[in-house]
User: Fold this.
Amino acid sequence: MELIVVACLISAPERCAEHRLLLDIHGLDPAQCVYSSPIRVAQWSIQHPAWRVTGWRCVLPAEDRLT
Assistant:
């Protein structure tokens, strides 16, 4: 399961990017990803103070690359 964090630079708000976090969730349960996301997003935000999180989503690793 992957958690995709969408964030924009605070110093240049027009510069946004997706940051992919591979999650170790047994059984690939999307509900587990959704429930654990707020804590993981908060941790990522603390570790990357130059970025402002604008959203996030959970996907299967191959699912997002097919579109």
